[in-house]
From TrEMBL:
One of its GO terms (molecular function) is hydrolase activity, acting on carbon-nitrogen (but not peptide) bonds. Keywords: Hydrolase. InterPro entries: Amidohydro-rel, Metal-dep_hydrolase_composite, Metal_Hydrolase, MTA/SAH_deaminase. This is Amidohydrolase.
Amino acid sequence: MTGPIVLRGGTVLTLDDTHRVLPGEDVLVTGGEIAAIGPGLEVPAGTTEIDATGGIVMPGMIDTHRHLWQTAMRGYGADWTLTQYFVWYYLEWGKVFRPEDIHAGNLLGAWEALEAGVTTTVDWSHGLQTTQHADAAADALEAVPGRFVLAYGNIQDAPANWTGTPEFRDFVSRRTGGDLGFQLAFDVTGDPEFPEKPAFEVARELGVPVTTHAGVWGATGDDGIRLMHDHGFMTPETIYVHSTSLSADSYHRIAATGGSASVSTESEQSAGQGYPSTWALRQYGIPVSLSMDTSVWWSGDLFSAMRTTLGADRSREHLEAHAKGDTVTHAALRAEQVVEWATRGGAAALGRPDLGRLEVGKKADVVLLKNEHSPVSFPLLNPYGHVAFQAQRGDVHTVLVDGRIVKRDGRLVGVDLPAVRRQVESTVEHLRGQLGEEAWAKGMNPDVPETKILDNPYTYTSYQSDTTHGG
């Protein structure tokens, strides 16, 4: 459905430069853009009308770092640490993924993102062992009516190797330059020889950004940031994923060169990259966007990202105050700010000022949160607080991408979920067959370390009831 569309009578979170909140107003979409915002708008004949009364109309959310190819293994690694993730994907089993498995994961993950109101997703696609895998990833993204950026990576080979092959150059010439965005995705180990330098030079030659896992405990740290900076490869377009476990010097270098951070709080809290970094990033003025990382562990929606980010940042603020004997009486990070990070923050990181806000002339990527069947939908008192703490994917009523309805009345439009399910089931069957049942079960259920119970200085005698007093 691509004709004019009007969302009537919702609370509009514009996320414009002044963050106007407009209760009871309409949003008119024509030709893929926001045409008008206001009360009681007159609309062209034949306009599709959507009743947004009692709901929140907001910009589509933007995820700047998600490994879509892993979505076919949804929940498999729920009890992993980062070490177990690295061993499974990097060292042992990541190499058994076929192109069709990459396609299945991307297809499922792309639809999952749209269903949750994430209209733009960066596919941090580091499972592209061959250009056949890359074509499969791109094919899946182009089959789904959302906005996607393919961040091309290959964890099975060194960045200098795979970016230097004729096959990679052929892929770039064939598959980039259209609607599908493109980045290079690789990490910098901190090796003094800087083996990643040729890959940065390729990115510079192609004119594409680099997205890199930075500040990941035990894997990437200050040495990598220093090498990037000293060789002139830190740019305003660079996205530093996680950005935990870094020194003040590294944060200063990121801030000075205009880069941004993609924070995956659910991931950082659970896997061990380091404490979620928004508490530090705010001190250095580093722009923030939000991301979900991977559905092999965590949820695939930015409501969880906003909620956990607020919790982690505020928890750190309280903890540090208590250590000094102080009390936090006013929270520094507000719900409004994390909603901005989930929308405008992602748009800024991707260099897309036409996304992430509802303004006349901007792209019509729009989300309506409304659920008449839920008691959580009312009262609507603090719209930003409602988005960050109350809403969830089941409340996403309508999603528009480029003025096209891709979800309406709580259901995706134009998706063949049975076909997606068949592809994913084929991938799961393949992986289980490659691993064998013992390795499959072991991977899903890692050993639980023994918990040492601390010695208790208090001893208790057996309790005797006092029957003489009616006990």
